[in-house]
């Protein structure tokens, strides 16, 4: 059985901002505690959407952002404010075509929003 090919030019884009994951699922994906996610929210690093009943829902972009922050805090020993600043600096370097420092070439900040 073969699948029908998609029409040429039709590209299905993933909506990174669609709120999908509860705080518990997000904590499980990131292997962290829910209180840590609440602290990140309190600091404004990630602001999840809220349902009508005030439940937090995280998007794929939120998870990508939190993953980048965790990589910088756990892997490089930065504090949260330094991680935010470094992400912004890396985004500026990438936007202007400036090469990154050697030790920071592996951090993906393309879809991160802080």
SSE inventory with pairings:
Elements: E1 21-22, H1 23-30, H2 34-42, E2 49-50, E3 56-58, H3 60-76, H4 80-95
The average pLDDT is 89
- Shape call: globular
Number of separate structural domains: 1
The portion of residues assigned to helices is 40-55%
- CATH architecture heading: Orthogonal Bundle
In total, how many beta strands?
A: 3
Largest sheet, strands/sense/barrel = 3 strands, antiparallel
- Give the assembly state of these chains: single chain
Strand proportion: 5-15%
Strand order of the largest sheet: 1-3-2
CATH class category label? Mainly Alpha
In DSSP terms, counting alpha (H) and pi (I) runs of 4 or more, how many helices?
4
State the secondary-structure class: mainly alpha
Task: Quote the distance from N terminus to C terminus.
Answer: 45 Å
The poorly predicted ranges are none
Rounded to an integer in angstroms, the radius of gyration calculated over CA atoms is: 17 Å
> N-to-C SSE series?
EHHEEHH
CATH topology: Multidrug-efflux Transporter Regulator, Chain: A, Domain 2
Q: What does the model show?
A:
- Helices cover 44% and strands 6% of the residues.
- The protein is mainly alpha-helical and 114 residues long.
- The chain has one domain: Orthogonal Bundle (Multidrug-efflux Transporter Regulator, Chain: A, Domain 2), CATH 1.10.1660.10.
- A 3-stranded antiparallel sheet has the order 1-3-2.
- A hairpin with a 5-residue loop joins strand 2 and strand 3.
- The longest helix is centred in the middle third of the chain and has 17 residues, at 60-76.
- The model has no long low-confidence stretch (mean pLDDT 89).
């Amino acid at each position: 059985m073969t699948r029908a090919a998609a029409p040429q030019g039709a590209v299905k884009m993933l909506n990174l901002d669609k709120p999908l994951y509860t705080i518990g699922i997000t904590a499980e994906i990131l292997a962290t505690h829910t209180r840590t996610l609440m602290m990140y929210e309190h600091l404004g690093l990630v602001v999840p959407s809220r349902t009508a009943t005030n439940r937090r829902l995280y998007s794929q972009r939120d998870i990508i952002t939190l993953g980048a922050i965790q990589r910088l805090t756990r892997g490089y020993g930065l504090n949260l404010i330094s991680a935010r600043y470094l992400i912004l600096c890396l985004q500026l370097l990438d936007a202007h075509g400036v090469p990154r420092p050697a030790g920071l070439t592996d951090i993906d900040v393309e879809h991160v929003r802080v």
